[in-house]
Amino acid sequence: MNSSSGAHAAEPGSGPAGAPPGAEPGPAVEIRDLHVRRGRTTVFDGIDVEIPRGAIVGLLGPSGCGKTTLMRAIVGAQKLRSGTVRVFGETAGSRPLRRVVAYGTQGAAVYGDLTVRQNVRYFGALVGASRAAAERLIERVGLGEQAEQLVASLSGGQVTRVSLAVALVGEPRLLVLDEPTVGLDPVIRADLWDLFAGLARQGITMLVSSHVMDEALHCDRLLLMRDGRIVADTTPDRLLAETGARDPEAAFLALVAPERAAGGRPAQDPPADRAEAGR
Ligand SMILES: Nc1ncnc2c1ncn2[C@@H]1O[C@H](COP(=O)(O)OP(=O)(O)OP(=O)(O)O)[C@@H](O)[C@H]1O
């Protein structure tokens, strides 16, 4: 993963009615009629998405379908053509959300020439976290024994854990992780998903992208994307039951089969679940 924490200076008490963002009921993320262009590419041409709180939500779809762009919109790093993106009721990227939302980008965003402890303390200091909090997080992500090791000398899975500790140091309520398990072996991936599940049980909303469809089975909710559209907003059980497929990859292919047959465009009469999901 390699995360940069979107968690910077806190703005306590700046949410609706004086409560911090995330303390009020309602979805974690609400996206309405979102249009985004990147360069000459129209990535989103009017999508609507809602992400519930406290769940692990998988954002799954093939490379280039728009996962990173959607995450960038949610953390406030993406220029929008039109539409709204609200996180815990606040405009994405706005000041009250700075410590509430953390973003683990693709690509390295921790310092290889610092130790694990130095990285977590450094990013912690930026958000006013104590050294004790940094130590707790190093233990939480299972890197107690590597705390004094340079990040450059860690394995890929361990670097991902450092990034996760850095992303968590501001105590976010929404953690957005862009392909955190890419390139990792199955055992390490399973360990990381266990860690994500533990964070979700603590009440942190987790939005995790992957282009490996089987990772769907680790999620509470699924947003399946293709070509800048949400082709299903579902759960792993419903996805398998409704498509009759044996695994998530086959289910995804079953979902997009009608439009593939129609030459890559949405089919004229999509199944009810796709029509609903693609609103
Ligand atoms: N800076 C840019 N300029 C032009 N087009 C871009 C730019 N960044 C992304 N795109 C295009 O936007 C589309 C969505 O890209 P995005 O990175 O969101 O996809 P993704 O699903 O995250 O892919 P991956 O799984 O490979 O990371 C792609 O067609 C991509 O080529």
From TrEMBL:
Domain ABC transporter, chain residue ranges per copy: 29-252
Region described as Disordered: 1-28, 259-279
Sorted UniProt keywords: ATP-binding, Nucleotide-binding
Composition-biased stretches (Low complexity): 1-14
Gene Ontology MF annotations: ATP binding; ATP hydrolysis activity
Protein name: ABC transporter ATP-binding protein
